[in-house]
Amino acid sequence: MFSDVKTAFIEGYWDVKPRIKNVSFPQEDRIQIELEDGRFIICPLDRFPSIQQLSPEQRQGWFRFGNGFSFDESDEVVHIEQILGNFNSYRHESE
To answer: What's the start-to-end Cα distance of the chain, in Å?
Structure first.
């Protein structure tokens, strides 16, 4: 079946460290994270109460913090591991 394949190629994002490019809110109850590699992750906002309590205007004041993000009006930092899940198995340290 694969006898014509000359080069081994593994599909997916095996050697890509996820980095946040943009944070947006496409719906009132959703947060969308755009990664630099082109992926988009959409999560229910109720998983992040510290963000949910911010007004729509305050949510626009986000900024990158290490390999995560925060907001001008919040003390919380959301790390990429919190978005992707399985923190202990999929942890990336900030550079």
So the answer is: 42
CATH architecture of 20-84: 2-Layer Sandwich (3.30)
Which residues, at least 6 apart from 33, have a Cβ–Cβ distance to it below 8 Å? 20, 22, 23, 40, 41, 42, 43, 83
Cut 0.85: pTM above it: no
Element (H, E) at 71: strand 68-71
For 40-90, what is each residue's pLDDT tens digit? 999 999 999 999 999 999 999 999 998 899 999 999 999 998 998 866 655
